[in-house]
Task: inverse folding
């Protein structure tokens, strides 16, 4: 028995009994710059500081969501006129091939605007990966 | 033209060899030019642990099969793997069929007797272009493999860590690739980053089961069926 389905059916029946109709699901609309800013601020994968041109990762850079959030944040910073972006990886314990790819994607976008990507505060494993792949010769690492 | 190349002349006629060596001295671009009398002696030279050779001049008069086999073998040596192979044709060979045939035999260019300085200049430039192109292709292929391997082992180490396994073997392999990457010269690093970028930008995220730390319950041995039942109920609660 699917508990969630039962609960949702019960809730729907109660709402119907009270004469409340469920809101239809709205199609995803294009966000304004402000809305996007707010959305990025609230992401659980990173914190985003447009004033400093900083993206603070809150999780390991190994999932699709964290990678997407990072690329979107950097895009947003660039669209706000920032040239140099710092990705703070203090709280990222791990980075995999996909995560490294997202850093390359960010670097490509930043270089198109003649800026530089800085990786700051990396933990042991991330620092090790940067050292193995000699990424410190490609990005600024502090 | 700032680059200089070493050359090897392979010709059965000693006078022709000396004439060509003398001609190369008038052209800026040749460093050390040596000459031998047969493809066999040339292969001995090319298998020595010395500086790479940028151009190998070989007489077509050795015969089609001998020349083809020599070029194939020479390309397998470390010294001549990126070299340009120039076939020395006799004055009587100045027809399109002979020239075409010489290129089909594996040559990158051809040279007629008597040797002119202008032609040698062109050949030097051609040899440097060929060497750079081959070096680029060879390096790119090697770097692609290296980048693929490094990323593969990084991912495997992460998987092992997330699953609570010892990443011993994968870590050892990762250290091996690290050593290889550390040996890449500064001038070749842009090519390595280009291959690494191509690889990682095309990767899809890996779906991994990340263990939830809160679910890690340390089981202790139950003393009796009653305490076992109680601890079980506590866990369920």
Result:
């Amino acid at each position: 028995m699917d508990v969630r389905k039962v609960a949702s059916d019960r809730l729907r029946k109660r709402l119907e009994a009270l004469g409340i109709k469920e809101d239809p699901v709205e199609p995803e609309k294009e966000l304004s710059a402000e809305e996007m800013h707010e959305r990025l601020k609230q992401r659980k994968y990173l914190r985003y500081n447009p004033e400093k041109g900083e993206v603070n990762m809150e999780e390991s850079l190994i999932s699709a969501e964290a990678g997407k959030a990072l690329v979107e944040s950097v895009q947003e910073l660039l669209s706000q006129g920032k040239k140099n972006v710092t990705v703070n990886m203090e709280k990222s314990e791990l980075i995999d091939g996909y995560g490294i790819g997202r850093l390359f994607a960010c670097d490509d976008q930043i270089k198109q605007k003649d800026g530089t990507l800085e990786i700051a505060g990396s933990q042991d494993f991330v620092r090790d990966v940067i050292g193995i792949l000699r990424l410190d010769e490609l990005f600024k690492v502090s | 033209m700032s680059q200089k190349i070493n050359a090897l002349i392979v010709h059965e006629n000693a006078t022709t060899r000396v004439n060509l060596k003398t001609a190369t001295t008038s052209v800026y671009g040749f460093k050390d030019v040596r000459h031998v009398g047969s493809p066999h002696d040339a292969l001995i030279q090319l298998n020595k642990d010395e500086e790479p050779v940028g151009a190998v001049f070989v007489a077509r008069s050795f015969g089609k099969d001998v020349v083809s086999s020599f070029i194939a073998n020479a390309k397998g040596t470390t010294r001549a793997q990126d070299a340009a192979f120039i076939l020395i044709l006799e004055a009587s060979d100045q027809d399109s069929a002979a020239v075409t045939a010489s290129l089909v035999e594996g040559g990158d260019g051809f040279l007629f007797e008597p040797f002119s300085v202008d032609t040698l200049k062109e050949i030097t430039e051609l040899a440097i272009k060929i060497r750079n192109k081959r070096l680029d292709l060879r390096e790119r292929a090697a770097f692609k493999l290296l980048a693929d391997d490094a990323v593969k082992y990084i991912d495997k180490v992460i998987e092992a860590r997330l699953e609570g396994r010892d990443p011993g073997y994968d870590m050892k392999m990762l250290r091996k690739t690290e050593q290889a990457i550390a040996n890449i010269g500064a001038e070749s690093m842009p090519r390595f980053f280009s291959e690494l970028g191509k690889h990682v930008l095309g990767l899809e995220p890996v779906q991994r089961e990340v263990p939830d730390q809160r679910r890690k319950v340390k089981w202790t041995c139950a003393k009796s069926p009653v305490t076992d039942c109680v601890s079980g109920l506590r866990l369920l609660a």
Remarks:
- The interface with chain A takes residues 150-152, 154-155, 158, 161, 174, 177-178, 181-182, 184, 189, 192-193, 196-197, 199-206, 208 of chain B (CB under 8 Å).
- Residues 212-237 of chain B have pLDDT under 50 and may be disordered.
